[in-house]
Design goal:
Distance between the termini of chain B: 53 Å
CATH topology of the domain at 73-235 in chain B: Sulfite Oxidase, Chain A, domain 2
Radius of gyration of chain A: 24 Å
Number of helices of chain A: 9
Shape of chain A: elongated
Number of domains of chain A: 2
Oligomer: heterodimer
Largest sheet of chain B: 5 strands, mixed
Structural class of chain B: alpha+beta
Shape of chain B: elongated
Strand order of the largest sheet of chain B: 2-1-10-5-6
CATH architecture of the domain at 73-235 in chain B: Alpha-Beta Complex
Structural class of chain A: mainly alpha
Order of helices and strands of chain B: HHHEEHEEHEEHEEEE
Number of strands of chain B: 10
Helix content of chain A: 55-70%
CATH architecture of the largest domain in chain A: Up-down Bundle
Number of helices of chain B: 6
CATH class of the domain at 73-235 in chain B: Alpha Beta
Strand content of chain B: 15-25%
Strand content of chain A: under 5%
Chain lengths: 265, 235
C-alpha cells in the first residue's frame, strides 16, 4: 500500500520536474559570487583611484629631483580635487593602504571563482576573436547590417573583461613595487626602477578607468537589460543585443514577451 | 515600491553619496577601520623587512645636487647657536650600557661609510645623494644597546621634530647618522650638523638636526606620525 502510494507520488513529482522547469526556470546569467565581487570591485576600484589621485597630487610629476622625465606632458598640474578622496596626503594614503586589501582579496575571490567554476571559458581569448572583434566594429559603424553571432559576450566585450583582471594584477604588482622599492628591489627593477614603476602604476590606473567608462557607457547605450543580470542574475535572452540588433544608441524595440510555450531556445 | 524602483533608488543614493564624498576625508566612523588596517599593514611590513635588502644606485647615476629639496618645520632654517647652547653634541642614550655624548669631531672620527642611495619622500618624489656618516648599527654596538632597545627615537632641535623607529630598520646597514652629503659637510638646509638618513624609511622618518638618539623598550610616535601619517613609514 505505502509502497504503491510512494511510487505514485514519486511518479507525479518526476513528471512535473520534467515539464515545468523547461519553461519557467532560468539559470542566473551571473553567479552570485560574480555579482557580489563585481559591485565590491566598484567600491574598491573607486576608492583606489580617487585616493590614488589625491596621493599623486602631492607630487603631480614623475621626474626624480634634478632630472627630467620624458613621457608625462602634464607635469606639475594637479588632478581636480573633485576627482579625489581622502582630504589630504596622509588621509588618502590611509584609505589607499586599507582599500588595497579590499581590491586584492576581492580580485582573488573573483579570479579564483571563475577559474574553479568554469566562467573563465567565457572570457579567455580564442582563435578568431580578432576577426570577430573586427566584425563587431564593422557592425557598430553600420558597415555590416546584422549583429555578429555571439555567445555570452561579443568579442570586444570579451577582450575588455579579460583585460580587467590582468590590468588589476599589474596595478597590484606596480603598487607593491612603489610601496616597497627597497624590500622588493628586484620587483621594482623589473618595472624599470621606482620612477618608472610609479609611471606604470599611473598608466594602468588610466587604462582601468578608460575600460570602466567604456563599459558603463556601453551598458547604457547597448544593453541596459544586462544591469538586471548583474543585480538579480536574471537576463532575458529575447532582449539580448543580438536579438535587438543593438548598436550603441540604435536598437530595435525588444520583441513582445513570448508566452511560455516551449519556444525558449 | 517595487524591486526595480528599490534597486534604482538604492543605486542612485549610493552614487549621490559617493559624489558628495569627493575631496572629503571620508566618514569619521571609518577612522578605527583605517587604524586597524594600518596596524595589520605594519605587522606585515615588519615581517617582510629584511636586513639584507639594499637600495642600490648605479655608480655613474646623476645626483640631485641643488635640486635636493630642503625641508624643516621651524619658521627659519634651524641653526645650532654655539654661543647660546654651547658646543653641539649628539647624545646616545636610553637602553644602553654606556651612554655617549659625541661632538661633531668625535662623530667624524668614527668608522664611517659613504653611500649613494635614493631618498623616498612620502609625497612620491625621489632624490639621490651621496651620504657620509656612521652606521646606526655601529652606534648601537659602541653604546652597547641592550635587549630592551626595541625602538629608537631620533630627536632634533628643529622645533619639537622627532620620529621613532623600530629597531630592525634603525640597525639596517644603510641607516646612517650622516654628517656629509655629496662629498661635503652637511648643509643647514639638509639637517646640519647631523641627521638620520636611510632608504628603508620614508623621508619624514629621517630626522634632521639631530640632538639625541634614544633607545627605548616602546615606541614614541613622531612629529608626522602623530599627525596622521603612518608610524612605520617603511620603504
Amino acid at each position: 500500500m505505502t509502497t504503491a502510494a510512494g511510487q505514485a507520488l514519486g511518479d507525479t513529482h518526476d513528471a512535473r520536474a520534467a515539464t515545468t522547469p523547461r519553461v519557467r526556470r532560468r539559470a542566473a546569467r551571473h553567479h552570485w559570487i560574480v555579482r557580489v565581487t563585481h559591485w565590491v570591485n566598484v567600491v574598491a576600484l573607486g576608492l583606489m583611484v580617487t585616493t590614488g589621485l589625491r596621493i599623486f597630487n602631492a607630487y603631480p610629476a614623475f621626474a626624480r629631483r634634478g632630472e627630467s622625465f620624458c613621457c608625462y606632458p602634464f607635469s606639475g598640474k594637479p588632478i581636480p580635487s573633485s576627482l579625489t578622496f581622502g582630504g589630504w596626503l596622509a588621509g588618502a594614503r590611509n584609505w589607499h593602504f586599507a582599500a588595497m586589501w579590499l581590491l586584492f582579496l576581492n580580485g582573488l575571490v573573483y579570479v579564483g571563482f571563475i577559474y574553479l567554476h568554469g566562467e573563465w571559458r567565457d572570457l579567455v581569448p580564442r582563435r578568431g576573436d580578432i576577426r570577430d572583434s573586427w566584425e563587431m566594429i564593422k557592425f557598430y559603424v553600420f558597415a555590416r547590417p546584422d549583429h555578429p553571432h555571439q555567445g555570452k559576450h561579443n568579442a570586444l566585450q570579451k577582450s575588455a573583461y579579460f583585460s580587467m583582471p590582468i590590468l588589476g594584477a599589474l596595478a597590484v604588482l606596480t603598487g607593491i613595487a612603489i610601496w616597497k622599492p627597497v624590500q622588493f628591489a628586484p620587483l621594482t627593477a623589473v618595472f624599470g626602477g621606482y620612477v618608472w614603476a610609479r609611471y606604470w602604476h599611473f598608466l594602468i590606473m588610466l587604462a582601468l578607468v578608460a575600460l570602466t567608462v567604456a563599459h558603463v557607457v556601453m551598458v547604457f547605450a547597448v544593453d541596459p537589460y544586462s544591469i538586471r543580470s548583474m543585480v538579480t542574475g536574471g537576463y532575458d535572452e529575447s532582449k539580448s543585443p543580438e536579438a535587438r540588433n543593438a548598436r550603441p544608441f540604435f536598437w530595435r524595440q525588444p520583441a513582445a514577451p513570448r508566452s511560455g510555450g516551449g519556444t525558449n531556445s | 515600491m517595487n524591486r526595480r524602483r528599490f534597486v534604482t533608488f538604492g543605486a542612485g543614493s549610493v552614487a549621490a553619496a559617493a559624489l558628495g564624498a569627493c575631496d572629503s576625508f571620508g566618514p569619521k566612523s571609518a577612522t578605527s577601520l583605517l587604524k586597524f588596517a594600518e596596524r595589520k599593514n605594519e605587522t606585515l611590513e615588519r615581517w617582510l623587512f629584511s636586513n639584507g635588502s639594499r637600495n642600490s644606485v648605479k655608480a655613474g647615476a646623476r645626483l640631485s645636487g641643488r635640486s635636493f629639496p630642503r625641508y624643516f618645520i621651524s619658521k627659519t632654517i634651524p641653526m645650532w647657536d654655539e654661543k647660546q647652547r654651547g658646543v653641539w653634541r649628539l647624545e646616545v642614550g636610553g637602553a644602553v650600557r654606556t651612554p655617549l655624548s659625541l661632538t661633531l669631531d668625535d662623530l667624524t672620527k668614527m668608522r664611517s661609510i659613504t653611500q649613494k642611495v635614493d631618498h623616498f619622500c612620502v609625497e612620491g618624489w625621489t632624490a639621490r645623494a651621496e651620504w657620509t656618516g656612521v652606521r646606526m648599527s655601529e652606534l648601537a654596538r659602541i653604546s652597547g644597546a641592550t635587549s630592551d632597545a626595541q625602538y629608537v627615537d631620533f630627536q632634533s632641535f628643529d622645533s619639537d621634530y622627532h620620529e621613532s623607529w623600530d629597531i630592525d630598520s634603525a640597525l639596517h646597514p644603510q641607516t646612517l647618522v650622516a654628517y656629509g652629503m655629496d662629498r661635503a659637510m652637511l648643509g643647514p638646509g639638509h639637517g646640519a650638523p647631523a641627521r638620520v638618513h636611510s632608504p628603508v624609511k620614508l623621508g619624514y622618518k629621517n630626522t634632521k638636526y639631530l640632538t639625541r638618539i634614544l633607545f627605548m623598550p616602546s615606541r614614541a610616535g613622531g612629529y608626522w606620525s602623530d599627525r596622521g601619517y603612518e608610524w612605520y613609514g617603511g620603504v
